[in-house]
Design brief:
- This protein is of the alpha/beta class.
- It has two domains: about 170 residues, Rossmann fold (3-Layer(aba) Sandwich); about 60 residues, Pantoate-beta-alanine ligase, C-terminal domain (Pantoate--beta-alanine Ligase, Chain: A,domain 2, 2-Layer Sandwich), CATH 3.30.1300.
- About 40% of the residues lie in helices and about 20% in strands.
- The protein is built from eleven helices and nine strands.
- The strands form two sheets. A six-stranded parallel β-sheet has the order 1-4-3-2-5-6, sandwiched between helices.
- The longest helix is centred in the middle third of the chain and has 16 residues.
- The model has no long low-confidence stretch (mean pLDDT about 95).
- The structure holds pantoate (PAF).
- The site of pantoate has 10 residues, from β2 and α7.
Length: about 250
C-alpha cells in the first residue's frame, strides 16, 4: 500500500496513476468492520481503491469530542494493507485548510434537520471536507455507510447539485451481534453503557409511535437528541454518558 501524508506528493502521484476506475473510501480512522465493508466493496468494483484518514476538525461542534476522537493508526494501516487497499492518504489539517476555512460549502435545508439541528455547522464541515477530498482524489465512485444516512443523502445531493462525475454509493449499516450499529465511538462506551447501547436498535424497530419509543429510551437511561420519522425512515440520536450514538431503520422493517 502506498501511503501519502503530503497533498503535494499525492497530487503528483494521482497524475501518474494508470487508468481504470478509482474507488474512494473517506474515513476519520479508528476503522472497524463497517469501514472494511466499504473497502471490500470498493475493491470488488474498482481497479484502484484509495482510503483517506483525516480527522476533520471543522465537523466537530465540540472541542472535547475532537480531542478524544479515537485514534488507532497502526491497527488501521494493518487492516487496510491486509484488505488489499492500494493507496492511503493522510493529509494534515493545515494543508486541507490552507484557506483557514474561509470557503465553506453550506446546504440550507436537510443539513439543518436531525443531527444538523443538534450539531450546528457539522454538515458544513462534512460537505466542505468531502468536496476537497473529492477534488484531490478524483474518484469514479465513493462509498459511505448508511448508519450516517443524513450524511450519505447530503453527499449524494451535493454530487448531483455540483455536477460531480462521481457515483455515490451507500452501503448497509454493519451491526454487532446484539444489533448495535458499528461506530468508532462505541469504543468509548463503558461495559455497562455498551450493554445498554443495543437497546437503541431494538427500540427503534418496535412497531410503536415514535413518542413511545423516545419515552422507552429515556426510561432505559438514554438522553435523547431526537427520535424522528422522515420519508420512509426512522432516525434517532441519543447519548449514553459522553458518547453520542446515532442509528436509523427503514420504516417497513419496523
Ligand atoms: O463519516 C465520516 O467518517 C466523516 O464524516 C467523513 C465522511 C470521512 C468526512 O470527514
Amino acid at each position: 500500500m502506498q501511503v501519502y501524508k503530503s497533498i503535494e506528493t499525492w497530487r503528483k502521484a494521482r497524475q501518474q496513476l494508470s487508468s481504470g476506475p478509482l474507488g474512494f473510501v473517506p474515513t476519520m480512522g479508528a476503522l472497524h468492520a463497517g469501514h472494511m465493508k466499504l473497502v471490500e466493496r470498493s475493491i470488488q468494483e474498482n481497479k484502484h481503491t484509495l482510503v483517506s484518514i483525516f480527522i476533520n476538525p471543522t465537523q466537530f461542534d465540540n472541542n472535547a469530542d475532537l480531542q478524544h476522537y479515537p485514534k488507532t493508526l497502526d491497527a488501521d494501516i494493518k487492516l487496510l494493507e491486509e484488505a488489499g487497499v492500494h493507496t492511503l492518504i493522510m493529509p494534515n489539517a493545515s494543508e486541507i485548510y490552507a484557506d483557514d476555512y474561509r470557503f465553506i460549502l453550506r446546504e440550507n435545508a436537510l443539513s439543518k434537520q436531525l443531527c444538523g439541528q443538534h450539531r450546528p455547522g457539522h454538515f458544513d464541515g462534512v460537505l466542505t471536507v468531502v468536496l476537497k477530498l473529492f477534488n484531490l482524489v478524483q474518484p469514479n465512485k465513493a462509498y459511505f455507510g448508511k448508519k450516517d444516512f443524513q450524511q450519505y443523502l447530503l453527499i449524494k445531493d451535493m454530487a448531483e447539485a455540483l455536477f460531480l462525475d462521481i457515483e455515490i454509493i451507500g452501503c448497509e449499516t454493519v451491526r454487532a451481534k446484539d444489533g448495535l450499529a458499528l461506530s468508532s465511538r462505541n469504543t468509548k462506551l463503558s461495559i455497562a453503557e455498551r450493554q445498554k447501547a443495543s437497546l437503541l436498535y431494538e427500540r427503534l424497530r418496535a412497531s410503536k409511535p415514535i413518542d413511545d419509543i423516545a419515552g422507552a429510551l429515556e426510561k432505559d437511561g438514554f438522553k435523547i437528541d431526537y427520535v424522528e420519522e422522515h420519508a420512509d425512515r426512522r432516525f434517532a440520536a441519543v447519548w449514553l454518558g459522553d458518547v453520542r450514538l446515532i442509528d436509523n431503520v427503514e420504516k417497513h422493517s419496523v
